[in-house]
UniProtKB/TrEMBL annotation:
Keywords attached to this entry: Phosphoprotein, Sporulation
Lineage: Bacteria, Bacillati, Bacillota, Bacilli, Bacillales
InterPro entries recorded: Anti-sigma_ant, Anti-sigma_F_ant, STAS_dom, STAS_dom_sf
A molecular function (GO) term: anti-sigma factor antagonist activity
Protein name per the record: Anti-sigma F factor antagonist
């Protein structure tokens, strides 16, 4: 299975929705598309919705960590939401939750950033 990526740009927050498998086959493409979308717009904050992400490996963690660094270097925040149990476990084991905020859904992620879309 491949990966689909959907972008929704708000005022200063970009919502990225991933569907499918984020692994070593798809990581480079996702990284490039997210970097471009963040740079193209006046994106300060990033919301990453993983509701339809069926699988992720360490390559996916690298993509997420890289975008976290990209956003925080601009003074922004990154929030991950709608995390499936398997992906949640991977985040837990990697320690990613110590630096990346997690919210239950997109609405609460937007509220946590205190930005209007």
């Amino acid at each position: 299975m491949s990966l689909q990526i959907e972008f929704e740009q708000g005022r200063r927050a970009l919502i990225v929705r991933l569907k499918g498998e984020l692994d070593h086959h798809t990581a480079d493409s996702v990284k490039a598309r997210m970097e471009e979308a963040i740079a193209k717009e006046d994106t300060r904050h990033l919301i990453l919705s993983l509701k339809d992400l069926s699988f992720m490996d360490s390559s996916g963690l690298g993509v997420i960590l890289g975008r976290y660094k990209q956003i925080t270097s601009k003074g922004g925040k990154m929030v991950v939401c709608d995390v499936t149990p398997a992906v949640y476990r991977l985040f837990e084991l990697s320690g990613l939750f110590k630096i990346v905020s997690i919210q239950e859904n997109e609405r609460s992620a937007i509220s946590s950033l205190e930005v209007a879309l």
